[in-house]
Design goal:
The chain is an alpha+beta fold. The strands form three sheets. It has a six-stranded antiparallel β-barrel. A six-stranded antiparallel barrel has the order 11-12-13-16-15-14. A four-stranded mixed sheet has the order 1-3-2-4. The longest helix is centred in the first third of the chain and has 31 residues. The N and C termini lie far apart (about 75 Å).
Length: about 525
């Protein structure tokens, strides 16, 4: 494209020539963003004065933000995790925002040195109140806030350096009188358009727990956060977090934590609840993205997260225990699941032999594991083929947060997973939320962070022969899995019907069972309650 050639980029010398250059760019958002990124890279070279740099950046900023929206908004409708091509579009936008942030910072630093006549000094030493000097700093904060917002909106995990940068910029702005000044902005991120709102907005999105929410809930949460962010007080602390009775505290990084003063928010939530209830009988209710009950539930949850005092520790990389994770149901020779003892010398694992017809006994992993006691632990044999993941967090509600480096098999929200800690019982549950972990350059995905909702009970690999079927199907048995205390079974494929009889085959016994109610459905499985009708050895 001609707009990306060095000669064309060199023609951009001031705001007027930049405006003309922008008119030559194609309409496609991705191509426009690529061209703007090339120009930002050229502007990083020496040779631009502070005023000239700022004037050109102001022209580029509006086009950059609009191109990002045009390029990335369609991705919000795609399932997670993104493919490499889709994530690279996100990464290119993040790199572009980081470049503009750094250039605005450079313009601010140069202006600080030039405007040193003593007439524009703030009451804070080494700070300025001249609008022309402070505005580049505000734009740098805006770019960093958009970078974090973009990551959170696309369920990305911000790096510690991203949060540290946000805090440092906000600390510099607190030394001026512009924290609550209304800004002129064609593409505002928050309303009212203040630096305070730019800082607190990504913090509210973080507290809202976007990865576990639907696309409609995320959209409504962003709208509400954009209107409330400017009403929140904050204090940035160094080192360990300190709680406050005025609102939540966020432990962002080892270097920075933030205490929020959100005591002014409850009246706003009350007013929005009243508006939702008043519109419950509206004839256009069906056209609304959320029903009244769901909207009220969302408002209640956001008020709790944004107003209730407490410490919010953000999951971050740290030395953690490893565990094995396996997707889906067991894969074994279900036609013969009973363990046969006596064909192997437990004292000599190298004597393992290939035996026709024995489930899961002929894999390399099984033959290398050794004695008969190990062979009897069918769950351990299955999990030995799972991938190693890092165990980051176990929450008070029992949910687990793990981080995986592998991108295959593809994870999906609602997918069935089994987890085996190094010490402890096997865990079965589903993926509740997926976060994408970018590399340090943003351009590629390093892995995924999964939030797992666990089911009660310790799973056991089993087989099911339903009704008059000729073959067994793989399943997990969860003794005492449901709240009433009766067993439940995860079936694959999902086709169980209440009242249907089946033969349940465990590793050492068979039993006749009858299906009850379906407790939960997910991608390719059902969790079904059952009752025993008889047992045979």
């Amino acid at each position: 494209m001609s707009a990306l050639t060095e000669s064309d980029l060199a023609r951009v010398r001031d705001a007027s020539s930049c405006h003309e250059w922008l008119q030559t760019l194609p309409a496609d958002g991705g191509e426009r963003l690529s061209a703007i990124g090339a120009l930002l890279g050229r502007m990083a070279r020496p040779g631009f004065s502070a005023e000239l740099l700022f004037e050109i950046l102001e022209q580029l900023r509006v086009a950059q933000i609009r191109a990002i929206g045009q390029s990335l908004d369609p991705l919000l409708r795609k399932p997670l995790p993104y493919g490499n091509d889709d994530w690279q579009r996100v990464g290119m936008a993040l790199v572009s925002l980081r470049s503009s942030r750094n250039l605005f910072k450079r313009a601010y630093s140069q202006m600080m040195g030039q405007h040193d006549d003593g007439t524009t000094r703030s009451i804070v030493p080494d700070a300025h109140d001249a609008p022309r000097v402070v505005l580049p700093l505000v734009r740098a904060l805006d770019a960093q806030s958009r970078l974090l917002t973009l990551l959170l909106r696309h369920r990305g995990v911000p790096q510690a350096a991203d949060w540290d940068e946000l805090c440092v910029l906000a600390q510099h702005l607190r030394r001026t009188t512009f924290l609550d000044e209304s800004l002129i902005d064609e593409v505002p991120l928050v309303q009212p358009k203040t630096a305070r709102g730019l800082f607190t907005y990504p913090l509210l999105l973080t507290l809202a727990g976007l990865p576990a929410r639907s696309a409609v809930e995320i959209q409504l949460t962003e709208q509400l956060a954009g209107h409330l962010a400017g009403r929140i007080g904050f204090r940035i602390d160094h080192g360990p977090p300190r709680e406050t009775p005025q609102g939540p505290t966020l432990s962002l990084t080892p270097e920075h934590s933030v205490r929020l003063d959100s005591h002014r928010l409850p009246p706003s939530f009350k007013r929005r609840r009243e508006q939702a209830q008043a519109g419950a009988a509206d004839a256009d209710q069906r056209r609304r993205p959320l029903g009244v009950a769901a909207l009220l539930g969302l408002l209640d949850d956001l008020e709790r997260r944004w107003v209730q005092p407490g410490l919010a520790l953000l999951p971050r990389r740290a030395p953690a225990a490893e565990l094995r994770l396996r997707f889906g149901l067991p894969k074994m020779h279900s036609a013969d699941m009973r363990v046969k003892v006596g064909g192997h010398d437990s004292a000599a694992s190298g004597a393992a032999k290939y035996v026709y017809g024995r489930w899961e006994q002929n894999t390399i992993i099984r033959l290398s594991m050794g004695g008969d006691d190990d062979k009897k632990d069918s769950a351990a044999l299955l999990m030995a083929e799972g991938e190693l993941v890092r165990w980051l967090e176990e929450r008070p509600d029992g949910r687990l947060v793990v981080e995986r480096d592998a991108l295959t098999p593809r994870a999906g929200v609602g997918a069935l997973v089994a987890v085996q800690p190094a010490a402890g019982a096997l865990i079965l549950g589903t993926i509740e939320a997926i976060e994408q972990v970018p590399g340090s350059d943003y351009l590629n995905l390093r892995g995924q962070r999964l939030t797992l909702r666990r089911w009660p009970g310790v799973p056991v690999p089993a087989g099911l022969r339903i009704a008059d079927a000729m073959f067994f199907e793989d399943a997990w048995l969860l003794p005492g899995g449901d709240e009433a205390g009766s067993p439940s079974v995860i079936v694959m494929p999902a086709h169980a019907k209440s009242g249907v009889a089946a033969l349940l085959r465990e590793p050492e016994r068979d039993a006749s069972v009858r299906f009850g109610s379906v407790l939960e459905r997910g991608p390719g499985f059902e969790r079904v309650a059952f009752s025993f009708e008889g047992r045979r050895g």
